[in-house]
Design goal:
Growth Hormone, Chain: A; mainly alpha; 2 domains; two-stranded antiparallel ribbon; 2 strands
Length: about 500
């Protein structure tokens, strides 16, 4: 009996010691969260695998076999997609440090200069997105993907310069490249998947592929963060940009070898009888007509613009919000482990994309769980905004606001993991192939306009105001999604 009590007491003491160690500093706290998220994701994937084994044992294996041609298509798409996404992730962690380290005429770059460089990328995405989308649809999505690789390589190479004009030009090329990255590869894949000889004429495997793409993207992002740290340690803040050139070149070369060219299929005519849309070259005007004629496309675009605007605003505001609460909880001398927090966010995204795969296989309509996801995202962002607004810098240091903020941020990042495969699936259902890339880029205009407006007004808005704008954008996205769900339910889709 005494031995049993001794063992139990030792276990309790060990747990207490572990809890004390975890709560002792923010690095330990977020490392523990990262382990917990990894265990949760692994458990979910294990459950999924066991469930699949159980189902395949009771079904005819012939009916559950994926066509070999579609498997090949998935591999060709995902290999290129992950290489290009890794290159993009490599450039993110050291963006500010790279540009703030520049010296112009003997004067170090100011925060204002770095902000202008940041906004140049967003502005060029908004201005040139529809045009490059139109060119990608008419001249080929494979060419659009390869053009992204070249433009991003030039933008990355420009970071070695100390000439402001060169850096600005590099940001313009990066902004144009971004509009291609988030449209051309997806449009290529959907166009290829819709071909009869690829074995997925009813779109059965599209959702699965997008789930795999963004689950892998989260893992790629975690690895890219580690690689960026190593590259920066050896080559300075521009090291990650140099490394990304290698991934961009690999992705572009692989696309040129493995992908067949894929162009938009022209529509026969517009509703008003204008035969100009039957030409082989889709126009921005025709794309606008298609959007105006179909409210479903408009609603999908509204979700895309509003959610992604909220996401980019969040990217700019979570560091100061987190730092404030970390300082309150652990003391002013404690630093915020941004790299570990970023890894936790990516683990949340991986968990979200894993949940997407589960829901898709369970036969839940994308419109249904996307509505729920957006509702959760709105509540999470609203909670984060509330915590920032009610937490005074002079208040006593308590852990509860930090715990609530971490929970809100993690919930939102989990929703981000669900969002990307969901929006890809929705676009494949409602956005016509004839103008897919240009329409996707059209909705980038309000997205980037909202982000730039918030960034230019950040001195007046503050962190709380910016997060409040994100909350409002998410609420509007949720309303749009519920409207789309209602419309498609009536149509029996």
């Amino acid at each position: 009996m005494k031995m049993s009590l001794s063992i139990r007491g030792g276990a309790i003491n060990s747990v207490a010691a572990l809890r004390s160690t975890i709560s002792n500093n923010p690095t330990n706290l977020f490392n523990a969260n990262l382990v917990g998220l990894a265990v949760a994701t692994a458990s979910l994937k294990l459950f999924k695998r066991l469930q699949q084994k159980s189902e395949t044992s009771t079904k005819d294996s012939a009916t559950s076999t994926k066509p070999a041609k579609f498997k090949s298509l998935q591999i060709r798409f995902l290999a290129v997609f992950w290489l290009l996404r890794c290159a993009d992730w490599l450039q993110g962690p050291y963006f500010y440090e790279t540009y703030s380290s520049k010296v112009f005429n003997g004067v170090p770059a100011s925060l204002s200069t770095v902000s202008k460089l940041f906004l140049t990328g967003f502005a060029s995405t908004a201005l040139f997105g529809p045009l490059v989308g139109r060119m990608s649809d008419s001249r080929g999505r494979k060419k659009g993907t390869m053009a992204f690789s070249i433009l991003y390589m030039l933008g990355a190479a420009s970071t070695k310069s100390n000439v402001l004009a060169v850096l600005l030009l590099g940001r313009v090329m990066g902004g144009i490249g971004t509009s291609l990255l988030f449209s051309a590869p997806e449009a290529w894949f959907v166009g290829e998947a819709s071909k009869k000889d690829n074995g997925d004429t009813d779109g059965k495997y599209l959702g699965e592929t997008f789930g795999l793409a963004y689950a892998g993207d989260a893992i790629v992002a975690i690895l890219a963060g580690q690689l960026a740290g190593v590259a920066a340690g050896k080559r300075g803040p521009t090291g990650p940009f140099e490394l990304s050139i290698g991934f961009l070149a690999a992705g572009g070369i692989l696309a040129s070898i493995l992908w067949q060219e894929n162009k938009a299929e022209p529509v026969a005519s517009t509703e008003d009888g204008d035969s100009s849309s039957s030409s082989s070259s889709p126009t921005i005007r025709d794309a606008v007509r298609l959007v105006r004629a179909d409210p479903k496309i408009m609603l999908v675009g509204a979700v895309q613009s509003l959610f992604e605007a909220a996401m980019y605003i969040f990217v700019l505001q979570w560091p100061p919000a987190m730092t404030k609460l970390v300082t309150k909880t652990f003391g002013s001398a404690t630093g915020t482990p941004y790299g570990t927090v970023f890894s936790c966010f990516m683990a949340c995204c991986l968990l979200g994309s894993t949940i997407f795969g589960q829901l898709t296989e369970a036969g839940v309509r994308t419109e249904v769980f996307t509505s729920g996801m957006l509702s959760v995202a709105t509540v999470a962002m609203g909670l984060a905004s509330y915590i920032v607004s009610t937490t005074s810098s002079n208040a006593s240091a308590i852990a509860m606001p930090l715990a609530a903020m971490v929970a809100a941020f993690f919930a939102f990042e989990g929703c981000v993991g669900l969002y990307f495969p969901s929006i890809g699936t929705l676009r494949s259902k409602y956005v016509p192939d004839s103008h897919r890339t240009v329409i996707m880029n059209l909705f980038g205009i309000p997205l980037n306009a909202l982000v730039v407006t918030v960034f230019l007004s950040i001195n007046r808005l503050g962190v709380n105001g910016a997060l409040s704008v994100s909350t409002g954008a998410l609420a509007l996205a949720t309303a749009s999604m519920f409207k789309l769900k209602s419309m498609t339910k009536k149509d029996g889709k």
